[in-house]
Amino acid sequence: MPEAGPADPAYRRIVLKLSGEALAGTREFGIDPDVLKRIASELKDVVEVTYVAEDGEPRHVQVAVVIGGGNIFRGMSAGAMGIDRATGDYMGMLATVMNALALQNALEREGVHTRVLSAIEMRVVAEPFIPRRAIRHLEKGRVVIFAAGTGHPFFTTDTAGALRAVEIGADCIMKATNVDGVYDADPRRNPSAKRLTRISHLDALSHRLQIMDTTAISLCMDNRLPIVVFDLAGAGNIKRIVMGEPVGSIVTS
Predict the structure, then answer these.
(1) Number of structural domains the chain divides into
(2) DSSP states of 78-100 as a string?
(3) 31-37 CB contacts, 8 Å cutoff, 24+ apart
(4) What distance in Å separates the CA atoms of residue 169 and residue 17, rounded to the nearest whole number?
């Protein structure tokens, strides 16, 4: 990543990992339109951040999103319905496409050009995922939403987020949660839990901190990709992180 100046963004190409549950807001399932609109508005603010590149040309911060489907269907719970895990995971992937289309619609209502790229081909509603195509969309100032996870069962959307971030050469992956960072214990159960502003990938794995699944963290560690864990409910947090403000926790090499 190029070194940032004092007024430059700290991260110029990001992948935002959103859970499906984040779109549900306070609902038990489905999509809360107010939450969807707020997320779209915040992403618009990030895309509008500009800086001067090394060639002297102005550039926009590039934003990609990986979205889950837990607000609609979760593959890991399919067994309770007598559905085998692989089939359940494919059903969960289709749920992520529904969320991706909803977020695309919300972003375009904000005037942000957006493309959905799916790991499972469905050309009527989304483009097939091709890394070079995704990068080209980003370079043209479009928000890219990666849907359908990795396209394979038994992998979470956390792993899909890490994989896509590595494939497109992102500067970091931002993990949106409902807490304000990484703690050494569950802060909802342990009031004395301490927030860790910075931790290594290896420590996150060895202490089994519930940041992402182990496959995702290992992939980030092997590729020296920082993970920024933050509270999605904090207004403007995404842009603040992009600009280098100390928000949440960072997992780094």
Answers:
(1) 1
(2) GGGGT--HHHHHHHHHHHHHHHH
(3) 31/71, 31/99, 31/102, 36/102, 36/103, 36/106, 37/106, 37/109
(4) 15
* Sole residue written with tokens 């911060």: 61
Alpha helix segments (H runs only) across 75-156? 85-109, 131-139
Is residue 239 within 8 A of residue 44, CB to CB? The reply is no
Chain mean pLDDT for the chain: 93
- The answer to whether the CB of 195 falls within 8 A of the CB of 229 is no
What is the arithmetic mean of pLDDT over 8-32?
94
Contact 221, 239 (CB under 8 A): no
For residue 224, give its domain range.
13-252
The CATH number for 173's domain is 3.40.1160.10
- pLDDT tens digit string along 158-203? 999 999 999 999 999 999 998 899 998 888 888 888 999 999 999 9
Angstrom distance (rounded) from CA 76 to CA 7: 44
Q: What is the mean pLDDT of residues 100-127?
A: 97
